[in-house]
Amino acid sequence: MAVDNHHRIWRDGKFVDWEDATIHVMSHVVHYGSSVFEGIRCYETPNGPAVFRLSAHMRRFADSCRIYRMPLTYSPDDLSQAAVETVAENNLPHCYLRPVAIRTGEQMGVLPHDTPLEVFIIPWTWGTYLGADALKNGADVCVSSWRRPAPDTIPTLAKAGGNYLGGQLSKMQARVDNYVEGIMLDSFGHVSEGSGENLFLVRDGKLFTSTISSGILHGVTRDSVMQIARDMGIEIVEGSIPREMLYIADELFFTGTAAEITPIRSVDRIPVGPGKPGQITLAIQREYMGIAQGTLEDRYGWLTPVPARQASSTGSRKVRREPVGDMSASAF
């Protein structure tokens, strides 16, 4: 059964119907990629819908606007409240939220002079990003021939739409070659990240991840994993990771709001460890999902509840997580 994602969208302080959330073809963003965005999950918990790491996401959203000189008129707190209201407005027990700021207008030219900035928050019912099989058994991935941009080209700390053009090429190449995802190297040939996920590597009980100077997005889920791992007593090493470490890792996994904690079972058809998710990956995955879904104590204060008085009209309505299907290499 298909999921109806035609929800009402928050547009600069007002809710509009799905079909009315439109822009002009001459909008600056259409021609020059001038957008920044976020990806946020709202989980169904025993106490009702709750948005995960909302303040951290909205702070990064504001940071991205600042980096690209976009005159954002809303504070992170304003946007956080708007996100909660968007969930309540649509009576959704769980969803993915996509705040996006875009330069619109009706003029030509790279310079965004007097170009309006419009802000939307789009709710979307979304399931497992890399597939249910990958989430459970691990993803088959490759090292991409496409690299992340050099540090003096575009700012990768901003979550900007144009930053994902290279990721699109990497992911399309991976799918053509029967992989779920591609791992991109940075401009120096060190391990960076996936097309839309950060990456962690386990070796001898230590957790390795690339630094924020390696062309990666400073991921909110990445930060969550590092906090969880520290509390588990796991040593974390941030540094440059040579490509060959991918082939001798005991465990590998992706992190991201959409991907959550997705194990990796092979790289370039070389099995990771025994070729199945490892103990550290699974322990972190259980802890992360337990907190996010409200079955474990929210000891970090990561959940923002949607007030019951607003969300009560959901009643017993159930909106299923949309299946993505089998995205393992064997499915292609």
Walk me through what this model shows.
This protein is of the alpha+beta class. It folds into 2 domains: 9-126 and 302-314, D-amino Acid Aminotransferase, Chain A, domain 1 (2-Layer Sandwich), CATH 3.30.470.10; 132-292, D-amino Acid Aminotransferase, Chain A, domain 2. Helix content is 26%, strand content 26%. The chain has helices spanning 28-32, 54-67, 76-89, 132-137, 165-176, 220-231, 245-248, 279-292, 308-311, and strands at residues 9-11, 14-16, 35-37, 40-45, 48-52, 95-103, 117-124, 139-147, 181-185, 191-194, 198-203, 206-209, 236-238, 251-256, 260-267, 270-271, 303-305. The strands form 2 sheets. Strands 8, 9, 10, 11, 12, 13, 14, 15 and 16 form a 9-stranded mixed β-sheet that branches. Helix 2 (54-67) packs across helix 3 (76-89). The two termini are 23 Å apart.
Rounded Rg: 20 Å
Largest sheet: 9 strands, mixed
- Structural class computed from helices and strand pairing: alpha+beta
Ranges where pLDDT stays below 50 over 5 or more residues in a row are 310-332
- Cα shape: globular
Q: CATH homologous superfamily of the largest domain, by name?
A: D-amino Acid Aminotransferase, subunit A, domain 2
* Mean pLDDT score: 92
At the fold tier of CATH, the topology name of the largest domain is: D-amino Acid Aminotransferase, Chain A, domain 2
Give the DSSP E fraction (strand runs of 2 or more residues).
25-35%
Q: Provide the number of structural domains.
A: 2
In total, how many beta strands? 17
Assign the CATH architecture of the largest domain: Alpha-Beta Barrel
Number of helices: 9
Beginning-to-end CA distance, first to last residue: 23 Å
Instruction: List SSEs in N-to-C order.
Output: EEHEEEHHEEHEHEEEEHEHEEEHEH
Share of helix among residues?
Answer: 25-40%
What is the CATH C level class of the largest domain, in words?
Alpha Beta
